[in-house]
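Researcher: First entry.
Model:
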Amino acid sequence: MKKRNKLPCVVSIAGSDSGAGAGVQADLKTMAAQGVYGLTVVTAVTAQNTKGVDRFEVLSAEMVAAQMDAVFTDFPVAAVKTGMLGNGEVVEAVASGLRKYRARNIVVDPVMVAKSGDSLLEKDTQQALEKELFPLSAVITPNIPEAEILCGEKIAGIREMKEAARVLHAAGPSYVLIKGGHLQSGELMTDLLYDGEQFFYYRAGRVFSNDTHGTGCTYASAIAAQLALGLSVPLAVLAARCYLQSILPCSPGLGGGCGPMDHFACRR
């Protein structure tokens, strides 16, 4: 019998997006494009499209834990990406499962607000994220609005990004990646990575597009995939950033609002 080549396995622990531009749907497409096998633990179901989120329902912590048991007892998980978790009970269940199975290469995308501006969590979630998940993570990936919520301070430029990174690193993650796309900085964007001692800067030309739904999910999933493939965090961020830059201009032109990207454009 021919020996099978085992693909690295990466699990997305996140919400479902009925428009398939973000959430576990975007994560699975990203992982496939990166050459890893994507698994899912669904934490919430959203009714959303390119125009916004109509409603969402968070699954029970017990159901989330059962999915984690099913995945981790049968698949050799090499990396984890968390996204929308919904409430504190789910965060605690996820953190407990990650500790139970000694998960590694954990990428925490602290999803708080959808691209449309709709809130995607309940009030107790932020404290649970900081207490339970941040200390387990290889890297957390807040955007500017999320970093402002987590730190309680406005971020207007690189100086404030660096200070926010220091504050967030004190919560326990190995690395903090603050994504600078929301800053009004002209044609150049800067993402900042911090490991507690050194800052890494990732600068790229701004891609002007209305179809950016799911960029945060895609970025974090690509980082997790690259960690599963053996890259260090700084190199995984670089590879994920290059991937995102390559697909941002490639939109299938779907929906009447902020549309999705073509996750496989770079492979065509």
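Researcher: Second entry.
Model:
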Amino acid sequence: MRFFYANGGGDCYVLSVGKVGSDLDANDVTGAIDLLKKEAEPTMLVIPDVVEFSLDEAYSIQGYMINHCGAEMPSRVAILDIPNGYNEPEDNPTASVDVFRDRVSGTVQKSNSYAAAYYPWLHTTVYQSADVSYKNLIEDSYANVATLLTTEFTDPVKGISVDHANAISSFTNKGMSDDGKLTIDEADAALQNLSKQYPILLGKVKRQLNLMAPSAAMAGIYTAVDNADGVWKAPANVAVQNVTAPAVKINNDMQENLNVPLNGKSVCAIRFFKGMGNMVWGARTLDGNSNDWRYVNVRRTLIFLEQSIKEAAKTYVFAPNDANTWVTVKSMISNFLTGVWKQGGLVGPKPADAYSVSVGLGTTMTNEDIQLGIMRVMVKVAVSHPAEFIEITFQQQMQKA
């Protein structure tokens, strides 16, 4: 959550599937995703903890996320992480990406355009030294900590002092020193000042905690870009905040493989550039071979337009399904799209080149449609280039006679 808000995050829904440190159950996660079918507001689906599952479970959950967004709730997109995307073998620096591409996909190809994946993991500054203590260690390791400290504080001639021994004993005596005078919290604070090895140990723990998958930060960046420039602006060429370095250094050859693979499953890179910082350097969906849906901002723009138009059209559900209503609906949609065009969301030298709206008998509807109380509207918009139109078609059930 800190990573999300540090990068511009705003309002969000948080679904808990268990306590921190408890055993994770993939079924609990997919069950939580199902609950979102009842919520229309969320526009992004992000599960940073998916990388904590076994690989089989992680890939299964990610496929479930894609299907949820692409088939069941096409009003949102999934932001995905690459499991194990931080420690690559030298002979295959994108091994985790290759496995991800083989294992993760929507049930139908079209659903892949509702997901974007980001790589690699990031070294962050989310956790500070004050946030790290013995509480970040598993209890099974307390005995090893005690052994480490005993070795450090034991003098070959004099042995170990009583004070040091009591402080160390709190790690092996259920949180209380042998003399009953020192709690493990007090011992932790004292040892961070007295010991050389203990702060080093906690420093390594902090570094591990600060190694994070990027999806939470990307959700924040999506939000920040939406608020500043609009959903049609690609969430790329943006610096990721609270990051010291990507876990894997990406060069131009690796970037090409990530961006334009043969199977179309593009993965967005996060790279360090001198003088710029750690930058989001990709904006493609997992449907990279599609001319229409390869860019995440195009998919999200169409979601925004379609959902906005559908919501506005609900005003006319109980209006007569006749020419007067059709003219009003067409005018309402045209005014909305003109506003989007003026903001730069649609491309074209004039509104007529940026969009078209059709509704009426003989154009989008038949007499049978009217008798059944169905109003069909066709909207075409130019999102990427003036000559490239993407068509939105929807129907609305009107009041029946």
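Model: Note on the second entry: The chain has three domains: 2-124+210-297, 129-208, 317-397.
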